[in-house]
Amino acid sequence: MRFMSAAAELVDDTPDDRNRAVDALRAVSILAVIFGHWLMAAVTVDDAGDLVIGYLMEMAPWTHPFTWIFQVMPVFFVVGGFANGKSWRSARRRDETYGNWLRGRLRRLILPVVPLILVWGVGGWVGLRLGLEADMLGLASQVAMVPTWFLAAYVVIVTLVPVFLWLWERLGWWSLALGVTGAVVSDILSIGFGWVPIGFLNYVFVWGTVHQLGYAWIDGRLGGPWRRLALAAGGLAATLALVWAGPYPVAMVGLDAAEVTNSFPPRVTLIFLGLFQAGLALAFERPLRRWLQRPYPWRAVVAVNAQIMTLYLWHLTAMVVMLGLSLLVGGFGLRAAPLTSTWWLMRLPWFAALMTATLVLAFVFGRFERPGADHRPPPAAWRPVLAVVCVCAGLGLLAAFGIADEGGLNVLALSLPLAGVVVGGIGGARLHRRH
């Protein structure tokens, strides 16, 4: 099996000085997002056999404080800062061009989304011709494409790594203060003055600032366990103050009924939530690294990381598939009313079914996440940058509107990411084929 052999290779090739906590936190954060998405979707089938779409966060406000733990995208960006900072510094030492470095990072991030777009595009085209309603197709694909908003945001931050790292190396913690200031100003203008589009600058201010915590981690600027716990306490106190005194809700994920959300666009609250989460998690870095020296925990972490983007990108498509199968058999497994004891008991078999479907999809499409060595000449920097623009624009449209509407397929949204892959030279080299 390609996946097992690839995971075994990664275990065998792990250098002694690798910080295994980075990989573990990356795996845990993505798995938390996956299970969180599955739990939040309180979908049932009524007596007429129709799907009833529910959202646990809106049904049960008592769940909102739990998002302070399970909204773990800040942890992923901190881990990304560590990995991307080390990668760019290594590239600078080798005199590698920015264009070549960025193309390499994008190959791992963007190639896994290509089959997702193609499957939904071709499937949507066939579905429309078989009589599937465009509204239903659009809603299903919009749910499935939710993960792409994060991918787009992360790709933008990866593109800006040389800029943010340059700021960190010259300004240190003041560079994070600049990011916080930018996020605060953006929130004031977008929330207080109604200049809504300004708020989307926080995709750079908020996630870029959280990403810089990874640079502090690389350089040993986070101190020991007690200093990290103090960082966590400060982040928690600031988040509590913002929620108590400001316009920010308790829930750290988006709610359709809320006038202001913390995640769409991201708000300054997520910077301080990132300080809380990162400080708390990294306070236990040393015992975590010792534990990961054991073979079985490390193999599990490697197995998840070998497929991490594929699992993330396909987990909601797996849910859509399983919902469709349930409808075909009369709503089996989805008849219990949300929040009842039966519904909670059904979460375990439901999660098991979703995980099985996701693993099947990962087995089929995971090879796109393991590109082989790229020996092509370095590209001009504008090519991968243009790829980022095209890919992020297309993914943003797909996450917002799905693949279809009353006019048929959203060809532009489907085509932009694929055009970015071609123009940016992201594809072209062989994928990993070792057995």
Question: What does it look like?
Answer:
- The protein has 435 residues and is an all-alpha fold.
- 68% of the residues lie in helices and 2% in strands.
- The protein has helices spanning 2-12, 20-40, 56-59, 67-70, 73-93, 98-110, 113-129, 134-144, 147-159, 161-171, 173-192, 202-218, 225-245, 268-282, 285-291, 295-306, 308-328, 341-365, 382-401, 411-423, and strands at residues 44-45, 51-52, 404-405, 408-409.
- β3 and β4 (408-409) form a beta hairpin.
- α8 packs across α19 (382-401) and α19 packs antiparallel against α20.
- The longest helix has 25 residues, at 341-365.
- The mean pLDDT is 90.
Write a brief structural summary.
The protein is mostly helical and 435 residues long.
Keywords:
globular, 20 helices, two-stranded antiparallel ribbon, 4 strands, 435 residues, mainly alpha
